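Action item from last meeting closed. Structure (223 res):
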């Protein structure tokens, strides 16, 4: 994809984070890997509703500024750390979405309570990366470790969410699923003791979802 198209997608997904209610103000950030292997990332402290594609900043995979008049997101080290550890990942979305962050503040991970979690993580579990100061290489390391080799989502303790994908749109759609799952799990925990799916039940769903060439895991039907 051309840089300009990718810039527009990053800016559009940042706007959608606001319009969908996943984030407010300037919290949360979006990035994408270019065909050359550099990173386009939302700028720091700019209201996403008025942000333009030209405001998206280009950095290399070590976070050094290549092009842009604005400062890159303060969370750039976390994004670049994930791109360095996961070669197949081409987009990262980070939010402080309400329910997922509520769980992260309680120190809860999400266990396999719903089959849709398999679209985010093969074992149906969304892990929690330990707390450390935002914007640090240490946080990048914790996030990369929680995501492991194949997970598409994790929680950051006392902070928020990370989702990854092959495009910013895909990573955002996974944030929407993660937030929905977090809300359901939170309410289930308040009301009682949630029933967890067994490893066999999770594996059956994972096989079913990945077994069809035309399947779109993030938009799987409710049956
Ligand atoms: Zn954050």
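Sequence:
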């Amino acid at each position: 994809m051309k840089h300009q198209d990718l810039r527009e997608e990053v800016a559009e997904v940042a706007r959608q984070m606001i319009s969908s209610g996943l984030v407010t103000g300037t919290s949360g950030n979006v990035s994408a890997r270019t065909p050359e292997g550099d990173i386009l990332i939302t700028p720091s402290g700019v209201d996403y509703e008025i942000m333009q594609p030209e405001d998206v900043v280009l950095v290399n995979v070590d976070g050094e500024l290549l092009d842009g008049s604005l400062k890159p997101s303060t969370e750039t080290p976390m994004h670049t750390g994930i791109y360095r550890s996961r070669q197949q990942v081409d987009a990262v979305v980070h939010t402080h979405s309400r329910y997922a962050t509520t769980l992260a503040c309680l120190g809860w991970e999400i266990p396999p309570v719903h089959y849709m979690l398999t679209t985010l993580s093969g074992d149906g579990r969304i892990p929690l990366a330990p707390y450390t100061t935002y914007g640090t290489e240490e946080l990048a390391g914790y996030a990369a470790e929680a995501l492991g080799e194949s997970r598409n989502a994790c929680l950051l303790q006392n902070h928020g969410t990370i989702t990854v994908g092959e495009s910013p749109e895909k990573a955002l759609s996974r944030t929407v699923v993660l937030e929905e799952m977090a809300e359901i799990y939170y309410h289930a925990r308040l009301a009682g003791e949630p029933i967890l799916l067994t490893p066999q039940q999770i594996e059956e769903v994972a096989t079913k979802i990945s077994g069809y060439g035309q399947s779109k895991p993030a938009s799987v039907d409710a049956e």
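Note appended to the action item: Residues 112 and 176 are 17 Å apart (CA to CA).
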